[in-house]
């Protein structure tokens, strides 16, 4: 039960029925005994700006933003922090004092997930596959740690465009990704390849160094074909679900006043309905 004073937040997307964020946030609300609710908010692109201002007007504390609205969210904000500025996109909105404030927690969530798995994100050079919004957010955080970051994308023009807005990024041709593995300590798939129903990401680990860590931001299935291939070579892997969990922490803390814990109970809850392979 919630009262008339309940704190409200949600997730804006189109579609949004697939989002696991309501399950996560409402679990945390129950765990910490908070009078509040977190709801799915299906909003078509043409209605996005109206919806954001409407949520603020009716007293929502804020909202997460998912595909396809992250760039539109950046544009509607009256204030954005450095994480959003570097990423060029917003995934977390907060409404206070008449403002729409935006941040991007994707990159920080990715790093937090690595650290939770005992992986040092600054251990060596990183190779990112893909040049979309997730790549930009993750690359920005890695650069901030002083990591040498290289991006490979099927369309080299997109990789070059990413490098243009994040000085310090290197790029390489897509067909060089196999040969480049020995030169990197971390490999990150930031594309949707390997997601249930999507084509697999082809990568040959034959010449990878035994110390290479392979991370995937895809979490359906939990063990993507990329992670399975890396594991078969004895390489350390990090799945994408943890990024989803850790990127949610700052928003929940901002809206509901409690910093939630990502522990085994949360992981078990969120993995219960996700196929293992």
Blueprint of the fold:
Layout: E1 7-13, H1 21-31, E2 36-42, H2 48-57, E3 62-65, H3 70-76, E4 79-80, H4 82-87, E5 92-96, E6 99-103, H5 106-116, E7 126-129, H6 133-144, E8 149-152, H7 156-165, E9 170-172, E10 186-189, E11 213-216, H8 225-232, E12 236-238, H9 241-247, H10 249-256, H11 264-271
Structure report:
The chain is of the alpha/beta class and 277 residues long. 35% of the residues lie in helices and 19% in strands. It is built from eleven helices and twelve strands. It has helices at residues 21-31, 48-57, 70-76, 82-87, 106-116, 133-144, 156-165, 225-232, 241-247, 249-256, 264-271; strands spanning 7-13, 36-42, 62-65, 79-80, 92-96, 99-103, 126-129, 149-152, 170-172, 186-189, 213-216, 236-238. It has a six-stranded mixed β-sheet with strand order 2-1-3-5-6-4, with helices on both faces. α5 (106-116) crosses α6 (133-144) and α5 packs across α9. The longest helix is centred in the middle third of the chain and has 12 residues, at 133-144. It is globular, with a radius of gyration of 19 Å.
Task: Give a summary of the structure in a few sentences.
The protein is α/β, with parallel strands linked by helices. Helix content is 35%, strand content 19%. The protein has helices at 21-31, 48-57, 70-76, 82-87, 106-116, 133-144, 156-165, 225-232, 241-247, 249-256, 264-271, and strands at residues 7-13, 36-42, 62-65, 79-80, 92-96, 99-103, 126-129, 149-152, 170-172, 186-189, 213-216, 236-238.
């Amino acid at each position: 039960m919630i009262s008339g004073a309940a704190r409200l937040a949600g997730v804006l997307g189109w579609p949004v029925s697939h989002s696991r964020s309501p399950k996560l946030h409402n679990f945390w609300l129950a765990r910490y005994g908070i009078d509040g609710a977190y709801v799915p908010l299906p909003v078509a692109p043409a209605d996005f700006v109206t919806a954001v201002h409407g949520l603020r007007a009716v007293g929502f504390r804020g909202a997460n933003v998912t595909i396809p609205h992250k760039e539109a969210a950046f544009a509607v904000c009256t204030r954005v922090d450095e994480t959003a500025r570097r990423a060029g996109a917003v995934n977390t909105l907060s409404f206070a004092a008449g403002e729409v404030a935006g941040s991007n927690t994707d990159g920080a969530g990715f790093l937090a997930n690595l650290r939770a798995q005992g992986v040092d994100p600054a251990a060596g050079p990183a190779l990112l596959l893909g040049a979309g919004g997730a790549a930009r957010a993750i690359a920005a955080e890695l650069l901030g740690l002083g990591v040498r970051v290289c991006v490979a994308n099927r369309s080299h023009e997109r990789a070059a465009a990413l490098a243009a807005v994040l000085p310090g990024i290197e790029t390489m041709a897509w067909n060089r990704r196999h040969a480049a593995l020995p030169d990197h300590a971390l490999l990150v798939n930031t594309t949707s390849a390997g997601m249930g129903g999507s084509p697999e990401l082809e990568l040959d680990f034959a010449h990878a160094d035994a110390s290479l860590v392979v991370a995937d931001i895809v979490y359906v299935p939990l063990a993507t074909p990329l992670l399975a291939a890396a594991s078969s070579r004895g390489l350390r892997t990090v799945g994408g679900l943890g990024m989803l969990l850790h990127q949610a922490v700052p928003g929940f803390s901002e809206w509901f006043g409690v910093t939630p814990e990502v522990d085994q109970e949360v992981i078990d809850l969120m993995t219960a309905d996700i196929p293992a392979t």
